[in-house]
Design goal:
- The protein is about 20% helix and about 30% strand.
- By secondary structure, it is α+β, with helices and mostly antiparallel strands.
- Strands 18, 19, 20, 28, 29, 31, 33, 34, 36, 37 and 38 form an 11-stranded mixed beta sheet that branches.
- α9 packs across α11 and α11 packs across α13.
- The longest helix is centred in the C-terminal third of the chain and has 23 residues.
């Protein structure tokens, strides 16, 4: 074996299991499979390591192995194992490309056909290398075996039949079936996508819980689930050559979401968006299998109707589809809905937000407009980059006016290194007076790599018949902010026993906040946090119940500011690493260190402390005070003592807009006599302002 850098031995403890499974499948007369390498090797072609879970130095920048074999007059196959593949890697045999590694971070097998006469008698060369642009990509690849038979024959050694039923109805149910080997890697099977199922390595979405397929002999664990609200059933089995087995699995609902419909506002298909791997037919099956009741079709700059195909594939009763559009511009991406499939499409080639939003709102029927993945870089523009945006106060530094009414906080296909960063951005927006509905979504373009609905938004609406959801009611509820965000957990809040997200709580003598954190049995909650105007006011560790359903529940009596504010509750816990619903790593990471987390959060509940019947934002209060006391800074600072930090920050921003910048000597002098709270607020604003100016000067 020759590697392009030094060679290290990294034994794989379970490789003997793989070898055993291969050997028990060969006949007495057949030649044994050729083990090219039994190691998993760490490769990185360039740059610093992608994640701290990898060693600082890779074993090589590519895999390059010379091995001795016999010529193959007929087709054979190459079986290997791969992990953490993000970029494009070619698999090449004797100078000819056999195929590519699958762009998927999850641990899985890859089976590639080896055409006749690809091997020669004597020394052969296998090369696995990153092709195209050599971006940093730490991968593990190895456990490579050259089979002596075609892939089709290897895959046909056993037959497995699976039926998944609902515990309550005893009937077959749409679901996701996951198959892994003894090492936990997703396995290759002979199952194929069709009108009844969507298939990828180790994953089968089935519309009725039934599937039957050949697969190689070996030791497997089979899981069945149906997204966030359901439990997971599993079964371990050993299949020997010639076995035909039937497996019955049962799953049931564990999380009560009564009164809410599960929605994914960001869904793509390969058919219409042109990237990813999920066809329209497969998308219908994945939606049913992950129990997304209110899917929004958002292919790039197209308005696609799921209705006809959902009817044709007999899954329409499981969801009510909505036509939307991801308006993909040079200045950000915006999901809009509802729209007409054959109606006008917003002009995505416009050059400013004012023009873009004008075109969006001129599109018939549009009510919801979402700012997508605002901290991701697309077309060299990042909407909430410090160059453009001051997160602390929700300010656009170029005076561009955001006219969206919703914002993605969790995008499970493009997660942030800091899971709460977009929450802080949102808090700044709310305090600025931008009343944005918070959104959880998947941005899925795939069958399995990024799971549709893994992050989702629960919208307050009638949910008894998923196929008959009132679109008008649900969309209006969404726009009004009557939502919960779920990425493995569900957090609910009631203020004074009655008022929830999107509602205004009338003035009262006391504030009692009832919180409930729920989740399936296979996730854990560890912490609950409560924010008022974006400031953490209470936090508690959770001793999470192991069962599915309610993980934690409590009522807190609060002391709130003497002015209006909004409340948001966020629960977190360890991310899902199990192969049946594994969380993805950040799409554009800020750091090589990352700790995955489940999240469940509420929308904003507004508290009318001052009793005027309105939602008065921090910006509203600050504007009023600055107008009254701009000429007398010391008087302004004295008045600000009665307000929270959100109002103080907005006041600092308004003074800057009026020509009094954060480090103006006049301002600094007046702050000497201000309270510690006011001094802190202006110091924080000055710090953020300085950082933004440095970013702008170096951009």
């Amino acid at each position: 074996m020759v590697l392009s850098r030094k060679t290290l031995v990294m034994p794989t403890s379970h490789f003997l299991t793989l070898l055993f499974c291969l050997l028990i499948t060969s006949t007495v007369l057949a030649a044994e499979p050729l083990i090219i390498t039994e190691q998993l090797l760490h490769l990185r072609p360039s740059g610093d390591r992608e994640w701290t879970t990898f060693p600082e130095k890779p074993q090589a920048d590519e895999l390059n192995i010379r091995f001795e074999a016999e010529a193959n007059p007929g087709e054979t196959a190459l079986l290997l194992r791969q992990q953490d593949v993000k970029q494009t890697w070619n698999v090449e045999l004797n100078g000819k490309v056999l195929g590519k590694l699958v762009r998927h971070e999850q641990d899985q097998q890859l089976l590639l056909p080896v055409p006749p006469k690809s091997l020669k008698t004597g020394i052969n060369q296998l090369r696995i290398f990153q092709s195209g642009k050599r971006d940093p990509d730490d991968i593990q690849v190895g456990e490579i075996v050259l089979l002596t038979e075609p892939a089709s024959k290897f895959l046909a050694e056993t037959q497995l039949s699976i039926e998944v039923t609902d515990k309550e109805t005893k009937q077959g149910i749409p679901c996701r079936i996951t198959i892994v080997n003894a090492e936990g890697a997703l396995v290759v099977t002979a199952a194929e996508s069709n009108a009844r199922q969507a298939v990828r390595t180790g994953v089968i979405y089935t519309r009725d819980g039934k599937t039957q397929f050949p697969l190689p002999a070996g030791e497997y664990t089979v899981y069945a689930g149906r997204g966030f609200e359901y439990g997971v059933d599993q079964h371990r089995l050993i299949l020997k050559k010639g076995d035909q087995k039937k497996l019955d699995l049962k799953i049931g609902r564990e999380v009560d979401t009564s009164g809410y419909v599960s929605c994914d506002t960001h869904i793509h298909t390969l058919t219409h968006s042109g990237h990813g791997d999920c066809s329209m037919e497969e998308r219908m099956l994945t939606l049913a299998g992950e129990q997304i009741e209110f899917p929004i079709a958002t292919d790039h700059n197209q308005q696609i109707d799921y209705e006809p195909l959902a009817q044709k594939l007999n899954v329409r009763s499981y969801f009510t589809p909505v036509i939307g559009n991801e308006v993909t511009t040079k200045w950000g991406h915006f999901n809009v809905f509802p729209v007409q499939s054959k109606g006008p499409v917003p002009d995505f080639k416009l050059s400013s937000w004012n023009e873009i939003f004008e075109s969006i709102y001129e599109t018939p029927h549009v009510k919801a407009v979402i700012l997508n993945h605002a901290r991701d870089l697309h077309s060299k523009y990042r909407p909430l980059d410090p160059v453009n945006h001051l997160s602390l106060t929700g300010e656009n530094l170029d005076d561009w006016r955001l006219q969206a009414n919703a914002m993605e906080l969790i995008n499970s296909g493009a997660t942030q290194t800091d899971v709460l960063q977009l929450y802080r951005d949102w808090f700044g927006m709310l305090n600025r007076g931008r009343l944005l509905t918070p959104v959880g979504c998947s941005d899925s373009h795939d069958v399995s790599r990024y799971i549709v609905g893994q992050s989702r938004t629960y919208i307050q609406a009638e949910d008894r018949e998923p196929g008959k959801i009132d679109i008008g009611q649900a969309v209006q509820s969404f726009v009004n902010g009557k939502v919960l965000l779920s990425y493995g957990l569900l957090t609910q809040m009631k203020v004074n026993s009655r008022y929830g997200p999107g509602e205004l709580v009338p003035s009262a003598k006391a504030w009692n906040v009832s919180l409930t954190v729920s989740g399936p049995s296979w996730v854990k909650a560890e912490q609950i946090q409560l924010y008022a105007n974006g400031q953490l006011i209470r936090s508690e560790q959770i001793k999470s119940a192991k069962r599915g359903g309610v993980k934690w529940q409590e009522t807190w009596k609060l002391n709130l500011p003497s002015h209006d504010c909004f409340l948001v509750a966020i629960a977190t816990g360890p991310g899902v690493t199990a192969p049946y619903w594994q969380f993805a790593k950040p799409y554009q990471p800020d750091s090589p260190e990352f700790e995955s987390q489940v999240v469940g959060s509420t929308g904003a509940v507004w508290i009318d402390v001052d009793g005027d019947g309105n939602r008065t934002t921090a910006y509203d209060y600050a504007e009023r005070l600055v107008k009254q006391h701009q000429a007398d800074l010391e008087a302004l600072f004295k008045q600000l003592e009665d307000y929270d930090q959100a109002v103080i920050l907005q006041a600092a921003s308004l003074l800057r807009k009026r020509g009094i910048e954060p480090f103006d000597p006049k301002l600094t002098k007046a702050l000497r006599n201000a309270s510690k709270t006011v001094q802190l607020g202006f110091a924080l604003y000055g710090e953020a302002w300085r950082a933004s100016q440095i970013a702008r000067s170096t951009n």
